[in-house]
Specification:
Strand order of the largest sheet: 2-1-6-5
CATH class: Alpha Beta
CATH architecture: Roll
Largest sheet: 4 strands, mixed
Low-confidence stretches: none
Strand content: 25-35%
Number of strands: 8
Radius of gyration: 18 Å
Number of domains: 1
Shape: globular
CATH superfamily: Phosphoribosyl-AMP cyclohydrolase
Order of helices and strands: HEEHEEEEEHE
Distance between the termini: 32 Å
C-alpha cells in the first residue's frame, strides 16, 4: 500500500462533513485526538494523540502509532511491552477533528499501569458523588483488576 502523500485541505465545511476526502484537523500543536476501541468488545481502551507522521504510519503499518506529548516523539504502542494494537478499522468524526481506531489488542492490556484498559476507575455520579467523599473529595472506584505486572514489561 502506498502511503498518502498529503491529506486534503480543509477549505469547504460541506466537503469536510459530507465528502469523502480525508482532511483531518490537527490542532495548533499539530496533533489530533485518537480514541482507541477494542474491535471485538467495543470497550474504549485509551485516548492518545497523533501528529501527521503518526497518522500516516498507522495507516500504512496497520498498527497504532501515536505521538507522545510528554516525550515529544512518536510512540509505537507495544514496542516495549509487546502489547501492540493491530488496527482493523479507522474512522473520523463529522468534522474530522477526532480519529477512532478499532484495534485488536495483543497481550493482556494496553495501560502502562497494568490494566486491560486505561479506563479502569469509575467516578461517582449524582448522590454517589457526595456519598464517596473523603474530606470533601470524591473517591474513584476501581472497576477492574490489573491484567499484568507492568514492571515485567516496561
Amino acid at each position: 500500500m502506498q502511503s498518502p502523500t498529503a491529506f486534503a485541505e480543509r477549505v469547504d465545511r460541506n466537503a469536510i462533513e459530507t465528502g469523502n476526502a480525508f482532511a483531518p484537523k490537527f490542532d495548533d500543536d499539530g496533533l489530533i485526538p485518537v480514541v482507541t476501541q477494542d474491535s471485538t468488545s467495543g470497550e474504549v481502551l485509551m485516548v492518545a494523540y497523533m501528529n501527521q507522521e503518526a497518522l500516516r504510519r498507522t495507516i500504512t503499518e496497520r498498527q497504532a502509532i501515536y505521538y507522545s506529548r510528554s516525550r515529544r516523539q512518536l510512540w509505537h504502542k507495544g514496542e516495549t511491552s509487546g502489547h501492540v494494537q493491530k488496527v482493523t478499522e479507522m474512522r473520523t468524526d463529522c468534522d474530522q477533528d477526532v480519529i477512532l481506531l478499532k484495534v485488536d489488542q495483543v497481550g493482556p492490556g494496553c495501560c502502562h499501569a497494568g490494566y486491560a484498559s486505561c479506563f479502569y476507575r469509575r467516578a461517582p455520579l449524582g448522590e454517589d458523588f457526595t456519598a464517596t467523599a473523603d474530606n470533601g473529595i470524591a473517591q474513584l472506584e476501581f472497576s477492574e483488576e490489573k491484567a499484568y505486572n507492568p514492571d515485567e514489561v516496561y
